[in-house]
């Protein structure tokens, strides 16, 4: 518990200034998490004899995140190029005797798209709403964190009905619904706070009902990101994606729900709130 607490404090001390100030500082921090997650993704699948191409997967995630931050119109052509490049390198691998190269190609592309393309919504959410991006991010990520905290606290104390016993034996339906409830509360509270209190940076843009809806959707769906990463780990036979963060596992263990929250939050804010 002490290691977990110290890790949280350290991440908060770095993450909050990055969210507030944005720019290259935030880009570097998020890119470190995404690239680290891509490296762990390759490691997980190599543990079960798949061979995703490390340089194409990790380098592809880095290139996509960079394009999404500095020159967004290049992102889609770059994604197309990376998929074609992945096919090319795995064709060569098959010709050289790798019989499972077609499956390796699928794993490589999935890593680029899931960690790189979807993960880059963590960058888009901060950058694509002008000076308000940081405030939107400070609604979406606390919704995710509140859901995780609520699910863990209630699930550990009162969880009796297993939610996904093969994927994550400790998760319960009691914890899941508690997490959704806390996400709704946090979404409504921060929406009210940022639109009706203090400097009112989001005044007129979101009301507590919309914030509660944002919390409901993210709270209900973001846990699937955690379960998805659990699927990777269960298949690989590894407990954590790595041990880079004491008491918290690796990069993927940290961002699995963030990816879902950022992508869902980005489109809900863009199409249903603004």
Task: Provide an overview of this structure.
The protein is mainly alpha-helical. β1 and β2 form a beta hairpin. Helix content is about 75%, strand content about 5%. It is globular, with a radius of gyration of 19 Å. It has 2 domains: about 1-130; about 130-274, no CATH class. It contains 11 helices and 2 strands; from the N terminus they run αααααααββαααα. It starts with a helix and ends with a helix. The longest helix has 26 residues, at about 135-160.
In short:
76% of the residues lie in helices and 3% in strands. The chain is mainly α.
**Strand content bin:** under 5%
Secondary-structure element sequence? Answer: HHHHHHHEEHHHH
CA-to-CA gap between the ends? 40 Å
Strand order of the largest sheet: 1-2
Helix content: over 70%
Content-based structural category: mainly alpha
Mean pLDDT: 91
State the domain count.
2
Shape: globular
The number of helical segments is 11
- Give the low-confidence spans: none
- How many strand elements? 2
Cα-atom radius of gyration: 19 Å
Report on the biggest sheet. 2 strands, antiparallel
Write the layout of secondary structure elements.
Layout: H1 2-21, H2 23-46, H3 54-70, H4 75-95, H5 101-118, H6 121-127, H7 133-158, E1 162-164, E2 168-172, H8 173-196, H9 208-221, H10 223-236, H11 251-273
Antiparallel strand pairs: 1-2
Helix pairs in contact: 1-2, 2-3, 2-5, 2-10, 2-11, 3-4, 3-5, 4-5, 6-7, 6-11, 7-8, 7-9, 7-11, 8-9, 9-11, 10-11
């Amino acid at each position: 518990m002490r290691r977990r607490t110290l890790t949280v404090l350290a991440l908060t001390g770095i993450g909050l200034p990055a969210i507030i100030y944005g720019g290259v500082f935030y880009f570097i921090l998020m890119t470190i998490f995404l690239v680290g997650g891509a490296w762990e993704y390759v490691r997980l699948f190599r543990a079960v004899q798949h061979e995703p191409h490390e340089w194409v997967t990790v380098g592809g995630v880095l290139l996509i995140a960079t394009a999404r931050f500095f020159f967004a119109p290049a992102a889609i052509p770059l994604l197309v190029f990376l998929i074609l490049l992945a096919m090319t390198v795995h064709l060569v691998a098959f010709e050289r005797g790798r019989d499972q190269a077609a499956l390796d190609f699928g794993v490589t592309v999935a890593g680029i798209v899931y960690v790189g393309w979807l993960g880059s919504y963590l960058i888009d959410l901060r950058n694509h709403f002008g000076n308000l991006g940081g405030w939107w991010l400070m609604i979406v990520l606390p919704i995710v964190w509140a859901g995780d905290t609520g699910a863990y606290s209630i699930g550990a104390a009162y969880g009796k009905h297993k939610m996904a016993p093969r994927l994550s034996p400790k998760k319960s339906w009691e914890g899941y619904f508690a997490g959704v409830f806390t996400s709704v509360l946090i979404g409504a509270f921060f929406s009210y706070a940022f639109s009706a209190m203090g400097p009112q940076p989001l005044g007129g843009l979101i009301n507590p009902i919309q914030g509660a809806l944002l919390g409901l959707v993210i709270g209900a769906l973001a846990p699937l990101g955690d379960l998805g990463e659990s699927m990777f780990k269960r298949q690989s036979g590894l407990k954590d994606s790595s041990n880079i963060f004491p008491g918290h596992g690796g990069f993927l263990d940290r961002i699995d729900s963030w990816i879902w929250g950022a992508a869902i939050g980005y489109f809900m804010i863009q199409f249903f709130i603004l």
